[in-house]
């Protein structure tokens, strides 16, 4: 990184161009009670050009959140309800024959949208999951002989239900690694629950009309600004140490974690952690990354990238517990 960065000028630039973040967060709060972490995670994915995997029981506003965000940005929204009989063509599209013209034409699937909700992605077989994940990785789709680029911005939010296992196809580790963040959506607090019930009975939620507050060009410009957010060498070292500790815990005096970890985070984990921390700094209207930014995204970035052994399951050791122990041990710059 360039050590001669003018932090004061960079801060002023970020401050002047990040006002839309407050508009988006306020707009999300009007239709979604609580779930601030979910709203923040969606913005991080949007600004980092990364996809998000949400895990939570039904009824926690996962679908509503991404639909609201797409309405606030005046962008195209597509929804795919994953079922066991779904085919890849139902996701990416297919060639359709016209008897009138005696020719084939491309019929695009719901993946051709700025925001795509892949609802209950673990209900579809591996072939369908792979079709979507390939589109996520390459940001293009090939149908017949024609290769078409997906729109920009392109954000996939996939959901999966952790309580149902029958009739589901778990995502392989190599595919979950394609998701930048895995967010655990939890129940609302007691006060939030009362507000949800009150708003639902009065019709406030149903009557909320969401109007665009920002255009796609502003989001694309913000992505370029996020790349300018300053990351000090000590922050880079902190990110690398956290990820390396998931691979070689014994090097960080965490020998007791070794039997619990089948495999640690890949280099993609380090990249995602740095990018997400940058985006969080931007959301907080700051031109530089601090350790709190890294700690604020580390669970969402790493929890699906740490493989657990049978010993870990027997000892009730979760990925989140491993990350917590690593954060407590790795030196903070």
Q: Which fold name fills CATH's third level, the topology of the largest domain?
A: Rossmann fold
What is the N-to-C order of secondary-structure elements (H for helix, E for strand)? HHHEHEHEEEHEEEHEHHHHEHHEHH
- Assigned CATH class of the largest domain: Alpha Beta
- Kindly report how far apart the N and C termini lie: 16 Å
Name of the CATH homologous superfamily of the largest domain: P-loop containing nucleotide triphosphate hydrolases
**Average pLDDT across residues?**
85
User: Uncertain segments of ≥5 residues (pLDDT<50)?
Assistant: none
Second-tier CATH architecture of the largest domain: 3-Layer(aba) Sandwich
Residue share in β-strands = 5-15%
Total strands: 11
